[in-house]
Design a protein that fits this description.
Length: 327
């Protein structure tokens, strides 16, 4: 990859001219490479795992719980942000061909590729180190390392090769709750990875990601093709294949979201189950509407609904578990 500082000529880029961004600091541009939205979601799911694991497992003092929550949030954010920066570094030339990504710091020439590569590697390793030293056990750090490794070394290279890349990509997106549950587990060593609530959250996050990303992929299918990425939406202008996958997975999402209640019945009961069923059925209806008439408005509706659905369910989960624990 080139280490040139000038912008890559890019006729697809229709956003602000890079020269207009001259006032943006290098720190701000580096933060942009971490994909803050994704990093925030990953950190939140790790924190949800920690809270659910703490309420389902051994009793911790408030001080210890706050310390571990802080360590997990910081360590997970660093490791995730670093992996995202490395992903941007590897995909610079492909991002430059896509309208939705051409304004990113590397294809727009706001940062050097070498700087982003070093930043990503250091942030990832620092996050793993924070988790290893702060939690006092190897399991959380190993999960974070696995997330980064799969995302950068497996998922990223697969994106231009096969549509199965999205399935592989769910793994690093679904593993972070295990960082949290392992951090508060009473089991030593790798035994901390055996917490049932952590794997229930893994299942929930795995299934949730698929209709969410398939909707994005169909909405931006022409852009992904310009970038050379092989997505499920490739050669699916009618949306038939994407809509079928989205609808099927939205139905599967209901039992996936009920899984935490099955493995932790002392923490989650009727309130959580009712919220999952009501919101889950509502999401299925939106997906069915897209299946019946495949247009951009309905695909966008599925995408927006998926963003709203997940936090609502996670908030309901933690709220009921906390109420039952403290009652």
């Amino acid at each position: 990859m080139s280490h040139a500082t000038r912008a890559i000529p890019n006729p697809a880029f229709t956003g602000t001219d890079p020269s207009a961004e001259a006032g943006q600091t290098a720190v701000g541009a580096l933060i942009e490479t971490t994909k803050p939205g994704i990093t925030r979601l990953v950190s939140i799911t790790a924190l949800v795992g920690l809270l659910m694991g703490a309420m389902a497992g051994v009793e911790l003092s408030p001080g210890r719980l706050i310390f571990l929550a802080t360590v997990c949030t910081i360590g997970t954010a660093l490791a995730s942000g670093g992996a995202n920066a490395l992903n941007m570094w590897l995909e610079t030339s492909r991002d430059a061909r896509m309208r939705r990504t051409a304004g990113r710091p590397l294809p727009s020439g706001r940062l050097r590729t070498g700087h982003v590569a070093w930043f990503g590697a250091v942030a990832t390793l620092l996050g793993v180190l924070v988790l290893a030293l702060g939690t006092g056990g190897p399991a959380p750090a190993l999960v974070a390392l696995a997330c980064a490794g799969i995302y950068v070394l497996v998922y990223t290279p697969l994106k231009p090769v096969t549509a199965w890349n999205t399935i592989v990509g769910t793994i690093p997106g679904a593993l972070p709750p295990l960082i949290g549950t392992a951090a508060v587990s009473g089991e030593p060593g790798l035994g901390a990875l055996g917490e049932p609530v952590g794997w229930a959250l893994f299942a929930l996050m795995t299934v949730w990601q698929l209709p969410h990303f398939y909707a994005i992929a169909w909405l931006h299918r022409e852009d992904y093709e310009r970038g050379g990425f092989r997505m499920l939406s490739r050669n699916d202008a009618s949306g038939a294949r994407s809509a079928w996958a989205i609808l099927s997975l939205s139905i599967l999402l209901i039992p996936a979201m009920l899984a935490p209640a099955w493995v932790a019945p002392d923490l989650l009961g009727l309130p959580y189950v009712a919220i999952v069923c009501v919101t889950g059925v509502g999401f299925v209806v939106l997906c069915a509407r897209f299946f019946a008439r495949r247009d951009r408005a309905r695909a966008r509706g599925v995408f927006i609904a998926s963003i709203m659905h997940l936090p609502l369910v996670l908030i309901a989960m933690v709220a009921e578990a906390a109420w039952r624990t403290l009652a």
